[in-house]
Amino acid sequence: CPSVGIAGLTLGGGLGILGRRYGLTSDQLLGARVVLADGRVLECDDERDKELFWALRGAGAGNFGVVTSFVFRTRPASSATNFHLSWTYPHAAAVIDAWQAWAPVAPDELYASLLIRADREVEQPPTLDVFGSMLGSEQDASDLLEELAVRVGVDPTTHLLGRMSRQETTCYWADLGAAEPAPQKPAQNDHPLLKSEFFRLPLPSEAVTGLLSTLVAERAAGQSRELDFTPWGGAYNRVSPDATAFVHRGELFSLKHSAVVDSDSSEAAKDAARRWLAKSWATVRQWATGRVFPNFPDPDLEGWGRAYYGANYERLLRVKRTYDPGNAFRFHQSLPT
Hints:
Elements: H1 6-11, H2 19-22, E1 29-35, E2 41-44, H3 50-59, E3 66-72, E4 80-87, H4 92-100, E5 110-118, E6 127-134, H5 138-152, E7 158-164, H6 166-175, E8 190-199, H7 205-216, E9 224-231, E10 253-262, H8 267-283, H9 304-309, H10 313-323
Antiparallel strand pairs: 1-2, 1-3, 4-6, 4-7, 5-6, 5-9, 8-10, 9-10
Helix pairs in contact: 4-5, 4-7, 7-8
């Protein structure tokens, strides 16, 4: 996402198309320079100010100090096979069932997200797309995509597959395949709303049915809705939950619910978007873990400390008291002292 900077990405954890192969962005962090509220400048890593370094990797955005530089472990740049599959909306339930049994347990080299979008024009049916990237050959990717199609039971209506350099891959994902039918890029006057949660087990058929029914119920002109399924597993989950502040290490996938209206829409239109968002999120919540990715903050989330940080929350409070006892760095959901 071109609007995301390396600092916020890293300090909240950081997922991406290489995550199932290499882990979080924060898992690659080797050291950081931090300016504290009292003016001290610390160089922290696994040997110096270890507790602060532990906390920065997953809870560092705005909680302890201003991070002014990072030292990362690097990985060799490589080409990738990128792909885009589409199905018509009547096959949505079958695609969700197939995707959640396939993408999170696929080889680490594969990343494939599932996007279901109901656009602002209510007369148009929702779109159903799988976008992905494979650190492997076109044949490797093609074999895995054939497995997905067999699971769905219906061939996709769109099947695009191509080998790209690392730079080409970055540009492709920045546009999210904008040259083909795809979710629209965010506009300057958009008013986005989102809620998300992690899941450790596949959604049962009743949950999928309720989710899809809610997506198309009472659609409003000018309001777009999106369900974004992101695979977890792989290297994300091969790190202990207490090794860093990022606790979400046993997840199967995450589901982000998004609603977008124009920023100059009426309050009634914005309230309607919020109601749909809350209803969609609640539809599947009983099957979720109660955990939320810190980089997808939810301003309305109750019990956000446990949702973002789980069993690491108390340890983070101790780090906060040590490095920012005056609570200089604070915001709506910052760690309290």
